[in-house]
Amino acid sequence: MDVSTLAQQLCDVSRRIYQRDWSPATSSNYSVRLDQQRCLITTSGRDKGQLQVDQLMQVDLHNQALTAGKPSAETALHTQLYRDIDGIGAVLHTHSQYAVMLSRMVGADELHIEGWELQKALAGQHTHEATIHIPIFANSQDIDLLAQQVSQRLDSQHHAPCYLIRGHGVYTWGQDLDECFRHLEALEHLFRYEFEWRRMARGDQS
């Protein structure tokens, strides 16, 4: 698929995400892989409800700009995933309410989800009886260090195609943009199920 087609697809997905209120106030960043050395990524500070093709830029997988634009501050979290995991074609990062709130509700460094039929929307999941392991990382403005931490944990353990950053949001990925969006949509619902389930279990009726 050519670069212009991928760019337009990324803008279309961006608007779908924004309409669901998962990327408020110019937050979030999205990318698609172009080849083994490059990806296309959103530039910094863009309104995701009105994202245009000329608000994307190319970077290599070591975060060097290849076209004009200011890359997102979190570009290293995208390129780390492309370098580390074969077959990834897209990465989506959002700041949705339930991802952010659940990441603060869970004190452990990993969220476990089980028992929900929608788990099967995630690649590699075939039954609601399985437990999905989602790493949670402490938020940091040191993105290079955070990328190293993500790389070390995802390399040593088997996890779902996603992770949370506490008080920040979710990163998810897929073999292409369609699969990545499916993961994101399923995760957003699963996060809401878990948040509400845990809140009711605590007896919080407010």
Automatic annotation (TrEMBL):
Gene: mtnB
Pfam family membership, one: Aldolase_II
Molecular functions (GO terms): methylthioribulose 1-phosphate dehydratase activity; zinc ion binding
Sites where the protein binds Zn(2+): 93, 95
Function of the molecule: Catalyzes the dehydration of methylthioribulose-1-phosphate (MTRu-1-P) into 2,3-diketo-5-methylthiopentyl-1-phosphate (DK-MTP-1-P).
Protein name: Methylthioribulose-1-phosphate dehydratase
Ranges where the Class II aldolase/adducin N-terminal domain occurs: 8-195
Cofactor: how and how many bound: Binds 1 zinc ion per subunit.
Species this chain originates from: Bacterioplanes sanyensis
